[in-house]
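Human: Respectfully, please carefully check these tokens:
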Amino acid sequence: MNGQNRNDISPGMKVEIVLKQDQRTGKLTKGTVKDILTKSSFHPHGIKVRLESGQVGRVKNIM
């Protein structure tokens, strides 16, 4: 699963996100979803989430 569908993601899941400052390099950050920030059911660049660490980014991979 690639993180583009909101239905595939729920709080407590382990995911890899790309942070805003890492979008050029594509560096991934691992963490656990705390909140889902994207309201639409689909986003081509990935659903935006907040991790339990407080970091915000778009989901690239669901573990």
Q: What stands out?
A: The two ends are 8 Å apart (CA to CA). Residues 50 and 56 are 4 Å apart (CA to CA). The chain has one domain: 6-62. The chain has a mean pLDDT of 96.
